[in-house]
Amino acid sequence: MAKPHSADGRARSSVQIFIVVGLCCFFYILGAWQRSGFGKGDSIALEITKKSSDCNIRPDLSFDSHHGGEVSKIDEFESKPKVFEPCDAQFIDYTPCQDQRRAMTFPRENMNYRERHCPPEEEKLHCLIPAPKGYVTPFSWPKSRDYVPYANAPYKSLTVEKAIQNWIQYEGNVFRFPGGGTQFPQGADKYIDQLASVIPIKDGTVRTALDTGCGVASWGAYLWSRNVIAMSFAPRDSHEAQVQFALERGVPAVIGVLGTIKLPYPSAAFDMAHCSRCLIPWGANDGMYMMEVDRVLRPGGYWVLSGPPINWKTNYKSWQRPKEDLEEEQRKIEEVAKLLCWEKKSEQSEIAIWQKTVDSESCRSRQEDSRVKFCESADANDVWYKKMEVCITPTPRVSGDLKPFPERLYAIPSRIAGGSVPGVSVESYNDDNEKWKKHVNAYKKINRLLDSGRYRNIMDVNAGLGGFAAAIQSTKLWVMNVVPTIAEKSTLGVIYERGLVGIYHDWCEAFSTYPRTYDLIHSHGLFSLYKDKCNEEDILLEMDRILRPEGAVIFRDEVDILIKVKKLVEGMRWDTKMVDHEDGPLVPEKILIAVKQYWVANVTSAQ
């Protein structure tokens, strides 16, 4: 493996200094190192070390017998950790469950081949995915919205394919994103202004949005300044690296497609859904894709469709498509929208906006159309690998109005007030919020860079009620709240009600993202949850794949589990530090902090 800018020796000595002076110093020095350039922070680090007498993080851990006999007997120092070797450079952008070669073996009908198809156990990689040569820490937000280092995603095809649409431009050693899109070549801001003339974007009523077929996610990138957070998805297809570009820019995105299985989001989650020339055949399959959007759209939410076939009478010549085909396409869309009880609010130029009826049950009771079929599933949130159906999801009953953001961040979610999350009361919800405020305050004392803008893309791998994301909420960052499919409680709907975003996922499989797309990972109780469910080594290798070089992980779990995790990650080129619970050494739950070392692929291995 190539060394980072031939500074590996100096970098290693700096890391040794970090460990000695304590974890708070560790992160402070790391920040200085990154700001000054790779291998150039040694003198700064040494100077800070001399001045860092105020670091008071406990350097030791208590392994007294109150943790149990087995804990005190763990032989972590009696055997060397397993060393994980780097993967070949051909795997730099490996996405295990969206592997291009494997995808081509699946049917193309309804985009099945672009969906998740994970490798069997015998085909899993047990090595570390390398970063490309020249990889650098992405720019901080908001600069990252407009610029991405070329070395991090060295793919120029979109600069040619989408040149006249202002998606992306290559300038020197960076890609520049002018903010354009296929439907808004003059810029996303002006386009969003058009939407805002109909949709209440300014007052916090619309907070969460779903962008289907997002391209490089410029729509979501420019919504951020309006306090709207968009979950964007696009397939891994001929538009190489579009989701990777989105995440390099600091915009929430996953690899995904509307195909044959349900979207990994809860019902009644999003305030707005959007398609801008996303090439999804909305009227096909008896409107199945529109019905899936209806499932994830909350009552009163908006659906935006821009581009063909909207206003086809005016635009069919410029689209170079037969007007008969466009007319039929729009007719089918209008027909399904009526079945769904969506009200068209606007149709201007090439943009149409519908609103989902708040009282859809009353609307449908008045319909005489025999084609209205309601889904029979007892749980509308049971979506993991479940086949999409041609049916309408009944609207869940809610208690009270949804508050505007940011008020809704700590307002009592209707799902909790209405008792639809078993085992979670209003009191326990409030207690959970206070607990996470306390935990995050402790994290900030450990890692002083936590709310500095250093970490933009954050993932909480076992998000619960979203307490961590709410406590760390800032315009400088966003959190992908993952609710494991095996979690005892289905809480993702609550997370969306809070004005946060997230996704369902099973951590026995790879996540739907590119390598090196998250700056910080938070893991609370994940390894306790997955104990005896799948190999913890596989979960840690997946964390390593999606974590950026010099990114950090915060593990919070039982001490015996964390000791095993610590031993494994030390063979993965991670530096670690164990810290006591903020309530003291007698609490069996501990905190393990890890930082992934900087290293890149050996270019000769790609030849």
From TrEMBL:
Family matches, as PANTHER family: METHYLTRANSFERASE PMT2-RELATED (PTHR10108:SF1119), SAM-DEPENDENT METHYLTRANSFERASE (PTHR10108)
GO CC term, one of those recorded: endosome
GO process annotations (BP): methylation
Cellular compartment(s): Endomembrane system; Golgi apparatus membrane; Membrane
Family: Belongs to the methyltransferase superfamily.
Molecular functions (GO terms): methyltransferase activity
Main localization, broad class: membrane
Phylogenetic placement of the source organism: Eukaryota, Viridiplantae, Streptophyta, Embryophyta, Tracheophyta
EC class of the enzyme, as a word: transferase
Keyword line: Glycoprotein, Golgi apparatus, Membrane, Methyltransferase, Signal-anchor, Transferase, Transmembrane, Transmembrane helix
The name this protein goes by in its record: Methyltransferase
SUPFAM superfamilies per the UniProt record, alphabetical: S-adenosyl-L-methionine-dependent methyltransferases (SSF53335)
EC number: 2.1.1.-
Any Pfam family: Methyltransf_29
Sequence intervals crossing the membrane: 15-33
Domain of life: Eukaryota
Topology within the bilayer: Single-pass type II membrane protein; Single-pass membrane protein
InterPro entries: Put_SAM_MeTrfase (IPR004159), SAM-dependent_MTases_sf (IPR029063)
